[in-house]
């Protein structure tokens, strides 16, 4: 029988053998994983736990909050403020940064998260997830402010997500490949189920919200038209489409079998930004995808090279199989 490796064992072995995970970071990720387990329990209870439906409030982006958005946010805050490895946190569901209260010990790390991605799928029992990203506070900086968070994604020291689907799967990178862990509900622990995750460079599958077609920019239309033309078209092959509308689940499919995911800028947004958030959606997913051999751009530039100017910055996203991402990006650069 193959040896079962728990998340804790995996992290300790990585720390010992490769030395690229400092102890504080390892413990911080364990706390995040514990919070994800608690969120998974709430998600699974559904109507029985009275966690479905709206909370009657709006977040900073003007989006209606679901009860589970708020529950997941509270679980992550409560678990992590206590852990002792963080200076501050930032969340899609909170306007400003959250400083670790003085009654707890503090550390050097900054944690960002989208507590519950795919909110529109909560009530319909479709996969949703938690996305997170870890940065380190600049050395020597006293206190902590929003400016400490405004670092390009290439400075992330860890990133991951937990998808709550038929299985609960935690996916992690520390910048040395991508590993996946499946929650063993009987044991209550995450077990390593895949290492060295690789996204195929080519694909025949794309993910985009087609209902926005009339708002798209010409290069996006060109790319999708060519995919839709199938074997007779310039691509000479038939494409399939998948769109779950939970980025976390769409990216999980891409890490599992390849594909390209796009949430491009479209004409509904006057300031050329996209819909998704740079700091807690695009950056962590870009880190994972690149670590699995894929690519991630804003249709023109590498996402992880962008320096954010504000916490809740939005960005266009094209990520997944390398050759497709490069093609979409080239169509945009050609049209400029
Ligand atoms: P959320 O963080 O409020 O759930 O919104 C992000 C989601 C992504 O998961 C998904 O890719 C996109 O929004 C879906 O948008 P659309 O409503 O266009 O399908
Ligand atoms: Mg989201």
Which properties best describe this structure?
8 helices; FBPase_class-1; Fructose-1,6-Bisphosphatase, Chain A, domain 1; D-Maltodextrin-Binding Protein, domain 2; eight-stranded mixed β-sheet; 336 residues; binds magnesium ion; binds 2,5-anhydro-1,6-di-O-phosphono-D-mannitol; 2 domains; alpha+beta
Helix/strand layout:
Blueprint (H helix, E strand, L loop, with lengths): L6 H11 L5 H23 L8 E5 L5 E3 H17 L2 E6 L6 E2 L9 E9 L10 E9 L9 H4 L8 E7 L3 E6 L4 E7 L4 E6 L10 E3 L10 H11 L11 E2 L5 H11 L2 E4 L12 E2 H14 L3 E3 L16 E2 L1 E4 L1 H14 L1
Parallel strand pairs: 3-5, 11-12, 11-13
Antiparallel strand pairs: 1-2, 3-4, 5-6, 6-7, 7-8, 8-9, 9-10, 13-17, 14-16, 15-17
Magnesium ion binds next to β5.
Catalytic activity: beta-D-fructose 1,6-bisphosphate + H2O = beta-D-fructose 6-phosphate + phosphate
GO molecular function: fructose 1,6-bisphosphate 1-phosphatase activity; magnesium ion binding
Pathway: Carbohydrate biosynthesis
Describe the structure.
It is a single chain. This protein is 31% helix and 24% strand. It is of the alpha+beta class. The protein folds into two domains: 5-195, Fructose-1,6-Bisphosphatase, subunit A, domain 1 (Fructose-1,6-Bisphosphatase, Chain A, domain 1); 205-335, D-Maltodextrin-Binding Protein, domain 2, CATH 3.40.190.80. The chain contains eight helices and 17 strands. The strands form four sheets. It has an eight-stranded mixed sheet with strand order 4-3-5-6-7-8-9-10, with helices on both faces. Strands 12-11-13-17-15 form a five-stranded mixed sheet, sandwiched between helices. A two-stranded antiparallel sheet has the order 1-2. Helix 2 (23-45) runs antiparallel to helix 3, helix 5 packs across helix 8 (322-335) and helix 6 packs parallel to helix 7. The longest helix has 23 residues, at 23-45. The chain binds 2,5-anhydro-1,6-di-O-phosphono-D-mannitol and magnesium ion. The site of 2,5-anhydro-1,6-di-O-phosphono-D-mannitol has 12 residues, from strand 5. Magnesium ion (MG) is lined by residues 114, 117, 247, 281. One of its GO terms (molecular function) is fructose 1,6-bisphosphate 1-phosphatase activity.
